[in-house]
Amino acid sequence: MSGASDGAEANWILRHPALKQMKELQVGDSEQIHAAFLVYMDLTEVRRWKEVSCVKIPDLQAVLLEAQEKDGGPVHTILPLPVHQSLSHRSIRQVLDRGFPLLLCAVASDSTLVYQRMTDGLVTPDPPVGPFEDVGRRQHRKRRQQQQR
Q1: Angstrom distance (rounded) from CA 131 to CA 145
Q2: Residue 88 class from Cβ within 10 Å (0-12 exposed, 13-18 middle, 19+ buried)?
Q3: What is the DSSP letter of 146?
Q4: Is residue 83 part of a domain?
Q5: Residue at 8 is within a domain
Q6: Average pLDDT over residues 101-127
Q7: N or C: which end of the chain has fewer CB within 10 A?
Q8: What is the CATH number of the domain that holds 44?
Q9: What is the pLDDT of residues 13-50, one digit of tens each?
């Protein structure tokens, strides 16, 4: 293999169509574009989400991703954000007002991705899943049965 082809292979990221599309949105923040590209690659190559596309909200100067977790599923908006970048309530409100479920994705400098589902208002948690026993009540019942004997 020649040295020229090694350099070309190493720069495949720079030629990736999604990265080119993100740059064409003219966000101006290269760190946010880099974060968006890492999230794009995670969604498409690792998680196999469908119909992943890039959009821009002019007021935010950020690249948003829209995608479906599975064919025919609801569209989600994903907001990639470098971990050190702050985000205001107004910014979150702008994205939530688009009407799609929102995932905020914090992108660390080592490319670690952490997704957080954002909602409009409070959401009650799902009940725990699994075989649970009320040990305290069970022990109380045993003591009461022993006392009755």
Answers
A1: 25
A2: exposed
A3: H
A4: yes
A5: no
A6: 91
A7: C
A8: 3.40.1350.10
A9: 778 888 888 888 888 788 989 999 999 999 999 999 99
